[in-house]
């Protein structure tokens, strides 16, 4: 019985590690891609609403993704939508920093340090959870 529980524990850990590696690589790839792009201050024009956190039967949380506008070369105005969620509705008229592709100003990304912090916290959480669950399995009396 204990072997089955260790196997389930190992599969869960493999899944969590795979998901964290995928997320970290995706963030790093985008960071490398936009490293040389100029940063501009974009004006928040509104937001689009979405849901997150409904996996595993938990209640979904309402999230807001800012829509923004910035001036490109020659004063041309470009629009974009952030992929960085916020729990609060972003205030129209506020500023966010976006990286703009100089070859194609229609391509821009909202830069956020919260993603790195989130990935770091998730790694720490899963490391502690893995150790605690492994310890719990080892002391739990199975027949």
Description:
This protein is an alpha+beta fold. The protein has 2 domains: 35-112, no CATH class; 113-143. The protein is 41% helix and 27% strand. It contains 2 helices and 5 strands. It has a 5-stranded antiparallel beta sheet with strand order 3-2-1-4-5, with no helix packed on it. α1 (2-33) runs antiparallel to α2 (114-139).
Key terms:
about 140 residues, 5-stranded antiparallel β-sheet, alpha+beta
Write the layout of secondary structure elements.
Elements: H1 2-33, E1 39-52, E2 61-71, E3 77-81, E4 95-100, E5 108-110, H2 114-139
Antiparallel strand pairs: 1-2, 1-4, 2-3, 4-5
Helix pairs in contact: 1-2
In short:
The chain is α+β, with helices and mostly antiparallel strands and 143 residues long. The protein has two helices and five strands, in the order αβββββα.
Class computed from helices, strands and strand pairing: alpha+beta
Compute the number of helices.
2
The portion of residues assigned to helices is: 40-55%
Beta-strand content bin: 25-35%
The rough form would be described as elongated
Biggest sheet overview:
5 strands, antiparallel
Helix/strand order:
HEEEEEH
Q: Give me the Rg, rounded.
A: 21 Å
Unreliable segments (pLDDT under 50, ≥5 consecutive)?
none
Going across the major beta sheet, what is the strand order? 3-2-1-4-5
Average the pLDDT over all residues and give the rounded result: 87
Question: How many domains in all?
Answer: 2
